[in-house]
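@channel sequence for tomorrow's demo:
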Amino acid sequence: MAARALAGLVVALLAGCQSIGGMVVHLPESAVTTAGSGAVAIPVAGLSRPLPATLHLPAGTPPFPLAVVSHGSDQRLEVRARMTMPAYPALTEFLVGEGYAVLIPLRPGHGPAGGPYLEDQGGCERADYRASGLETARLIRAAIDHAETLPAVSKNDTLVVGTSAGGWGAIAIASTDPDGIRGYVNFSGGRGGRNRGRPGVNCAPERLVEAAGAFGRSARLPALWLYAENDSYFGPQLSQAMAEAYRGAGGRLTFSLLPGTSGEGHGLINRPAAAWADPLRSFLREIDDSRK
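structure tokens (generated this afternoon):
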């Protein structure tokens, strides 16, 4: 029996269904109402199959505010095909500790999600970063809408978080000024980074800055952008230019350029909480105070 229990634990961990600080719990969607983790299937209009996702719940009495966390992407089909279910253990533990239900979906065209890739930015000559970001935003919105039907999740009380292309999606959804969102957190966000695999070389950076300004013109709620100094996809000069364009167009933004991390700075979201917890905690306090 002990061996079977251990085997079940390993299978659950590999499936990405870790609970935070305790025993692994894998629950059917309808039963995800207590602390632990469970699989969720997210329907999206126009798609024949739902998006797979993992929902992590804190201890306490539901419903809980929602934090939806969006992963990065890649223009290369072979890279996207190898993707597994995303998991951000340090960030999830932090957000669950703050009382959030944390939803982490896998978008179409990535690994086991299957289906078409909907977020194509196009070639460098005609890169359309605004359109690709808005498509990511549409999928984030679908995840939020479905999560709000679950009994454990509060309605109209959501934090949008994303990294890389998912962070760009958070910037894009902010521009739509949707109802029910309390704020946006962008870890290392952007598109077109490391053109042809070359560190520090972005595909059409001027288009990225222009799109950031376009998103800022209609963004009304507070946003936090977090970048590391040693990000080789979106280096300090580019990330600051995007932030200036966004803020200059009217977007509400706190921009934090954090010290270089161990390894590639673009993986900031995967670093221990000490690398990003202080500005994130301050931001959460800020948006909590604004709701009172």
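heads up for whoever presents: Confidence is low (pLDDT under 50) at residues 1-28.
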